[in-house]
Task: inverse folding
């Protein structure tokens, strides 16, 4: 099973996670810029964070045979803090970087006018920098937030096929499926989605335009949820090709619209993992 | 090949011009520096147009690109060498001659007309000489403009304008005319310039319109064959390639006419052997365009620098023996370094320093690496900024940054303490010491002590000692 995790916050994870992810078949991932748990109070802490996403974290991932990409944005929660919003002015510089494959995470947290403005402005940045957009949907009032998200995307002129609307569930998937945007699902230990519910959605909606991610971060989460979803799909009768669509080809197609994905093997690491009875077995290993 | 190796006809003064051109082309040169002289396309001949047409046809047939040189010794005055010059009383005679040369150059489709100031007569005050230079060059420019002919001012040892700085200042005072460039004799740099030839090449950069190649010794204005003086030929040619110079680079040995064919053959062999290693310095078409764009508008570097990897590739330059690019860098590393080379031709030292710091500060890992590798090329013009960048990189734990930080710039400028800790960090993080420039030269007892302690610590912990550490210690014992 080869896996591209389209949404995982590796900055918050350990090298054990990287090792386990590589062993499970993860060869590429996207780390969206987001909130750090502790609120930021200045633009400087954003730029240090962005610099880590386009430098240090990329290097760290490479040590474990994983290609690291990122998305860059002002997240919706901090769009409400006037100490943070000036970061919008430095985004254009980052959006030209190699390995920056989308504008994100943008979207809504509490649906304030400030969030409206930052969201709309960053959709325009996606158009200007010829990038797709990764949109976070709110934890609270999710259905309304998702509808409003789709309205804003439509207004912006950014084509729906260049937008992934993330953290969907049974109540929000229909509207996004009908819009033509990509459908993102975060598989969590006890919130958001789980593997079995994900399989049920895949049965109902098919695998087209579906992205499955672990969204693992500093909270209770599991960076192997992509792999576990793949196993659940196989157990439910999906083919290996279906699993490859969801866990590799789909994210490659979505983020590939940036023209900035790098997916060739890292020197010293084996190519795609060998699979045996549905389990990936790493052969050879790195030169660490 | 990025520029055209050639030979100066003033080194063939015992040959008929046609024969000289045949010999030069036959040796493999693709360009010629044609000195107008009484026996070589006399610009005062009655049938000049026919002669020029004849030479133009011959150059075409031989595939020789050309520049027109105006340093003939007794063309204007049979008694006094080089007289009259631009700074003499009779400077208008020189201006008239240069205007003739401009018309000849236009007919020959030459790259430029090259000229020098002349020796200032003792009785002429400096201000007056400078005024004459300004008005003389302005007058020639006025004649060259409608014909679109470029002029190349050559600083010449012992003459009024003898340093690159003076030539650049004159150009600036004239309002930086587009058609006024620089002719640089790399041997002169050895003889009289404060900087070495490669540095002069980078300083002149985009203003270079003609280059003369020869060896020389410091303080002695005597044109020597390659290897007889102190010119770093390889480094100089690499600098020419790095700044994107694409014109004529012709051997200048005017006192070797008596043995011209042999001397020219030897020079060609020496040049071929010293030419930049083409496969190691691939010049992607995107890079050539990007360098031009940066020279036209330096601000463009902000857009082009991040894009280099996408355009030229990111693989290791020598994947077989250096798969991670730690020693020889990557394709995008060298492209970025060459973009900085182009940038250095159009920015002054302060602006260059500021831009290097900004590119590094705002760069991703690959861009930071590109800046670090580029310091080998342009760092001498921005030493403080370069050191700030190198020290930052050595504080990181990204082995590719650490490796790139310890290149020739650090070997030259980094303090010994910082350099030693950089080397030790390489051993700690698995960077091959082959990545450290100047290792042999800078290794000292203190570094050997540090490495010995490090190996003792490894041994005490039951760990392997890196082969590089053992080698380094072996060298000192």
Result:
């Amino acid at each position: 099973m080869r896996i591209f995790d389209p949404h995982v916050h590796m900055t918050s994870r350990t090298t054990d996670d990287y090792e386990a992810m590589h062993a499970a078949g993860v060869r590429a991932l996207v780390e969206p810029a987001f909130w750090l748990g502790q609120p930021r109070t200045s633009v400087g802490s954003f730029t240090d964070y962005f610099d880590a996403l386009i430098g240090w974290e990329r290097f760290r991932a490479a040590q474990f045979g994983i290609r690291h990409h990122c998305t860059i944005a002002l997240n919706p929660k901090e769009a409400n803090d006037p100490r943070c919003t000036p970061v919008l002015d430095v985004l254009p510089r980052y959006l030209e970087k190699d390995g920056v494959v989308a504008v994100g995470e943008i979207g809504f947290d509490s649906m304030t006018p400030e969030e409206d403005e930052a969201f709309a402005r960053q959709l325009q940045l996606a158009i200007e920098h010829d990038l797709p957009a990764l949109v976070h949907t709110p934890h609270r009032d999710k259905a309304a937030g998702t509808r409003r998200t789709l309205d804003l995307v439509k207004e912006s002129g950014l084509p729906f096929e260049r937008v992934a609307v993330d953290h969907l569930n049974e109540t929000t998937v229909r509207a996004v499926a009908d819009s033509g945007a990509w459908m993102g699902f975060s598989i969590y230990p006890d919130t958001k989605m789980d593997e079995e519910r994900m399989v049920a959605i895949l049965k109902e909606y098919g695998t087209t335009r579906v992205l499955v991610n672990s969204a693992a971060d500093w909270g209770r989460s599991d960076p192997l949820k992509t792999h576990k979803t793949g196993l659940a799909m196989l157990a439910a009768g999906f083919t290996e090709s279906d699993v490859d669509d969801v866990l590799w080809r789909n994210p490659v197609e979505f983020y590939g619209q940036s023209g900035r994905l790098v997916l060739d093997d890292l020197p010293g690491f084996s190519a795609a993992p060998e699979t045996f009875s549905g389990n990936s077995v790493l052969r050879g290993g790195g030169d660490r | 090949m990025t520029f055209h190796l050639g030979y100066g006809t003033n080194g063939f003064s015992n040959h008929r011009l046609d024969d000289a051109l045949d010999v030069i082309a036959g040796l493999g040169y693709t360009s010629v520096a044609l000195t107008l002289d009484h026996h070589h396309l006399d610009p005062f001949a009655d049938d000049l147009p026919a002669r020029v047409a004849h030479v133009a046809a011959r150059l075409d047939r031989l595939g020789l690109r050309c520049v027109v040189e105006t340093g003939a010794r007794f063309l204007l005055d049979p008694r006094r060498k080089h007289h009259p010059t631009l700074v003499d009383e009779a400077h208008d005679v020189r201006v008239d001659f240069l205007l003739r040369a401009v018309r000849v150059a236009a007919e020959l489709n030459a790259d430029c007309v090259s000229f020098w100031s002349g020796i200032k007569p003792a009785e002429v005050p400096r201000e007056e000489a400078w005024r004459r230079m300004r008005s003389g060059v302005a007058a020639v420019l006025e004649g060259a403009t409608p014909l679109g002919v470029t002029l190349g001012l050559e600083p010449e040892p012992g003459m009024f304008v003898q340093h690159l700085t003076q030539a650049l200042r004159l150009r600036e005072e004239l309002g930086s005319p587009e058609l006024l460039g620089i002719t640089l004799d790399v041997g002169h740099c050895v003889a009289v310039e404060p900087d070495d030839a490669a540095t002069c090449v980078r300083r002149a950069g985009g203003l270079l319109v003609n280059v003369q190649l020869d060896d020389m010794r410091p303080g002695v204005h005597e044109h020597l064959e390659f290897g007889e003086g102190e010119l770093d030929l390889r480094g100089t040619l690499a600098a020419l390639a790095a700044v994107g110079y694409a014109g004529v680079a012709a051997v200048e040995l005017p006192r070797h006419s008596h043995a011209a064919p042999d001397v020219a053959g030897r020079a060609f062999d020496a040049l071929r052997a010293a030419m930049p290693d083409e496969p190691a310095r691939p010049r992607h078409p995107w890079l050539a365009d990007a360098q031009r764009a940066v020279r036209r508008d330096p601000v463009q570097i902000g857009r082009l620098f991040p894009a280099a990897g996408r355009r030229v590739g990111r693989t290791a330059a020598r994947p077989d023996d250096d798969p991670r690019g730690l020693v020889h860098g990557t394709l995008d590393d060298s492209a970025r370094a060459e973009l900085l080379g182009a940038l250095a031709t159009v920015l002054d030292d302060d602006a260059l320093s500021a831009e290097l710091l900004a590119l590094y500060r705002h760069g991703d890992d690959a861009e930071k690496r590109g800046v670090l590798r580029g310091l080998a090329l342009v760092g001498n013009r921005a030493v403080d900024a370069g050191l700030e960048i190198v020290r930052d990189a050595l504080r990181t734990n990204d082995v590719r940054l650490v490796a790139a930080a310890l290149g020739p710039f650090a070997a030259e400028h980094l303090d010994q303490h910082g350099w030693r800790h950089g080397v030790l960090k390489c051993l700690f993080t698995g960077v091959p010491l082959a990545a450290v420039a100047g290792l042999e030269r800078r290794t000292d007892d203190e570094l050997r002590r540090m490495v010995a302690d490090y190996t003792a610590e490894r041994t005490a912990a039951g760990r392997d000692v890196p082969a590089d550490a053992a080698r380094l210690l072996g060298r000192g014992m």
Summary: The interface with chain A takes residues 302-303, 306-307, 309-310, 314, 316, 319, 323-324, 362, 364-368, 396-400 of chain B (CB under 8 Å). Chain B has a mean pLDDT of 92. Chain B has two domains: 4-276, 285-442. The CA atoms of residues 72 and 199 of chain B lie 29 Å apart.
